Amino acid sequence: MSQALPALLRSYDVSLEKIGLVSLVAVPWAMKFLWAPYVDHYGSTSFGRRKSWIIPMQVGFMVCLLLLGLLDPDSLNGSGFYWLLGILFFSNLIAATQDIATDGLAVSSLGPRERGLGNGVQVAGYRVGMLFGGAVILILLDRLGWLSTFVVLALMILVVSVPVWLFREVSSGSNLTHDSPRNVFTLALKFVRQPGMWAWVLVIVFYKVGDSFGSAMSKPLLIDLGYSLEQVGWISGGVGMAAGIGGALFGGWLVPRIGRVAALVGF
Questions:
Q1: What secondary structure letter does DSSP report for 22?
Q2: Distance from first CA to last CA of the chain, Å, rounded?
Q3: Are 69 and 147 within 8 A, CB to CB?
Q4: Tens of pLDDT along 201-234?
Q5: pTM of the full predicted structure?
Q6: Burial class (CB in 10 A: 0-12, 13-18, 19+), 103
Q7: 236 touches 135 (CB < 8 A)
């Protein structure tokens, strides 16, 4: 959804300053490390430690989509904009929490040699989600209208939740899974105090800065140039998205073969 918002808001004449504020709703993604140990520690052992987080978060996200559908799009340049920000903040909080549980499920289900490819598949899935959350939303909005689009998106979330519901989660034997959140924070602090670790932290923080600055306003620019929402959707979901998905899968295959450092420096 965040991929479509800049173009969507600009099409309703929302100012660029307000569009820039929308990026603040992604703060939960940057802060999720604060509650990640609790998500990893608590959960239903009978239903599945991670599934007991993933399924409720999926339901919560569907509710957020339906609430967005009930907003009057003509109010987005007024009070509706702040309702939009509030709902988007909670939807990002829900999605970030679900992501913690999904990562934990992937780590506990895959062996060490499978995790590189697993990460590639995960990123490819994320890219497909961006495609639906960006290009497809813009195309649907032009064809179906506001409310119908968000109902369709909520139904998509329902459909993709079914395999997760049916998946039989195997309990992990990892000690980390059963550590208390306090112990996990202690381990994390010890981890970042390793020599050279802050250099890697800086790499992680800054590697997408340029891309984020450019992509934030690229879609509003296209709207200002006279492109329709559907045209912007086709442009954003074209070659660039295909390259992103292909690169994720190729990277997952390549990294175990050439090593992480070589892949980072080379690409």
A1: G
A2: 28
A3: yes
A4: 787 777 767 666 666 777 888 888 888 887 887 7
A5: 0.76
A6: middle
A7: yes
